[in-house]
C-alpha cells in the first residue's frame, strides 16, 4: 500500500507508537517506516500530531537535553489510550470486512478459471 492510502490510519498508528514509547516527530516517522508505512509525508505526520494534541489525545513538551536542537516529544494521555482502544475495535471490524472481501475475491477468481478455490491464494500474494 502506498502512503496516501494509509494517511487515514496515521491516527491509530501514531497513538500506538506513542503508547509503546513516547517520541519526537522524526523518531515517530522512522518507527512508522519500520511498521511498513514508509511513504508518508513528514508534514502530514506533524499535522496529525498537532491534531492529536488539540484533541488532547497526546501532550508534548520540548526536550532540550542532548546535543542537538530542542525537539517536541509526544506522550499519550488517558484520552489517547481510550481513542486507541476505539480505533482498535474499528480496525478489527475493518480486518473482518477485508478478510471477507479477499475470500470472495479468491472464490470468484477460481470460479472464473473453472477450478476449485485455494483458500490461501489471496493471502500468499
Please give a quick description of this structure.
This protein has 125 residues and is mainly alpha-helical. Helix 2 (10-20) packs across helix 5 (78-113). The protein has helices at residues 3-6, 10-20, 25-34, 42-54, 78-113, 121-124; strands at 23-24, 58-63, 71-76.
Q: What is the number of helical segments per DSSP (H or I, 4+ residues)?
A: 6
Overall pLDDT score: 89
**Assembly of the depicted chains:** single chain
> Structural class, from secondary structure content?
mainly alpha
> Using only CA atoms, what is the Rg?
19 Å
Portion in helices? 55-70%
The order of strands across the largest sheet is: 1-3-2
Fraction of residues in β-strands: 5-15%
Low-confidence stretches: none
Could you give the count of β-strands?
Answer: 3
Structure description:
The model has no long low-confidence stretch (mean pLDDT 89). A three-stranded antiparallel sheet has the order 1-3-2. The protein is mostly helical and 125 residues long. It contains six helices and three strands; from the N terminus they run ααβααββαα.
Layout of strands and helices, then pairs:
Elements: H1 3-6, H2 10-20, E1 23-24, H3 25-34, H4 42-54, E2 58-63, E3 71-76, H5 78-113, H6 121-124
Antiparallel strand pairs: 1-3, 2-3
Helix pairs in contact: 2-5
